[in-house]
Amino acid sequence: MALFNSTAPCPYCYEKINPNALAVRCSGRPSPGKTACAEVPDKRRNACFGDATPVRPVIVDVNGKEKLSRNEATCGNCGSVSAIRVCPACHSRLPRNFDSDSPLFGLVGVRNSGKTVTLAVLQRELYTTIARRFNASIDSPGGKSGLSADLENLLKTMEDTAGVLPPQTAANASGVSIPAVFEWRYSKKGLANRSRDVSTIFSFYDTAGEDLATQDRALGQHYLDATNGVILLLDPFGFPGNHDKAIARGVDPASLETTPETVLRSIITVLQNAERTKRNKKIKQPVAVVVSKIDAFFDDVPPDHPMRRPAQRLPYFDDTESRSIHDHVAAMVDSWGGDPLLRLLDTNFEKYRLFGASALGAEPEYGTKRVNSRGLLPHRVADPLLWLMADRGFLPKES
Ligand SMILES: Nc1nc2c(ncn2[C@@H]2O[C@H](COP(=O)(O)OP(=O)(O)OP(=O)(O)O)[C@@H](O)[C@H]2O)c(=O)[nH]1
Ligand SMILES: [Mg+2]
Ligand SMILES: [Zn+2]
Ligand SMILES: [Zn+2]
Fold first, then answer.
1. Cβ distance 147 to 177 under 8 Å?
2. Can you give the residue ranges of every domain in the chain?
3. What is the DSSP letter of 366?
4. CB-ligand 1 contact for 246 (6 Å cutoff)
5. What residue owns the CA closest to ligand 1's atom 11?
6. 105-398: which CATH topology?
7. Tens digit of pLDDT for each residue in 188-214?
8. How far, in Å, from the CA of 96 to the mean position of ligand 1?
């Protein structure tokens, strides 16, 4: 239950804000006889996201201080009553359902582990197969801007006849770009088959892989201070046992320099700092550990194993199936020389789950960055997110 004073990270700038004390943007519908406030660039949006789009001003009181409200405010300048709630820190418009239960999930992984491709594919899966499966409405509350728009374009480029894979994501020196924010609404079945409408807002941010290559740089990843769950992508080619295979297939050797274990250590440090984890205690937030590019290792999975089968179509998270995938991935990681990583997970996290996923579904030409001629065949990319959502009680779980 949301408390009146509780805070939640803004899905756009990750600042912890109180959903009951939000700033309000003038709606531009003046009271009779007054002229509406003009649209001007918003300094705060410009500073946070480099966004200088003219918008109506945020409502201030007589002292020039922003009026904070739970639902609406009256503009002292033009008299319009407005319910356009925005984040006091970054002035992004917040969806009506934003409250302190809205989770922020981080997606992290080393350079070249498949984050951008995964997000691009996941975004579309959410709008299509996942929305249908859960009979949910899933959309971007702020419209398609920032990362959402970028991902859509990258997906188009991948699906074009040339099938070009995204370039390396730039390290974040030039300010933050707007993350991809999703609002998921659906009718949840409860006791006695009674259903009620529930909603959640979650956001993803596409990091540049090298931000996690060293602990110092990883500590600069402030958004990880605010996450409620993390999806960690591990590049299977990065494990010692797969190096030769990677080189033989034309994977860039430079992308194999940071091992999965190094990344995990960085993440552990960041999360321990963020949660102020005491000695001998484990990190509380759940971590979905995903071995990406699993298509390249399908030969090592029995054909009838759930890991090879397409994801469920039923409107719940299948925990039994997920556990059997977890066990198989653990065995694979172990056979690739990843046992230290498995031990790290065990000793540092209260709750983690292993996944195997493939955004492309078939091996690309690594050197020339071209999608396989069979096209995009995403495989189980949404499972980690569904697990995090089920863990929060938002989605039903069955085992
Ligand atoms: N076999 C296979 N290869 C993949 C898959 N997804 C990505 N790759 C390969 O991994 C490369 C990197 O993918 P990206 O999504 O750009 O990786 P990233 O983690 O965003 O990388 P940075 O932006 O540099 O941090 C791609 O160019 C492909 O060669 C997949 O599902 N299967
Ligand atoms: Mg990237
Ligand atoms: Zn914000
Ligand atoms: Zn006004």
1. yes
2. 20-86, 105-398
3. T
4. no
5. 112
6. Rossmann fold (3.40.50)
7. 877 777 888 888 888 887 777 666 666
8. 35
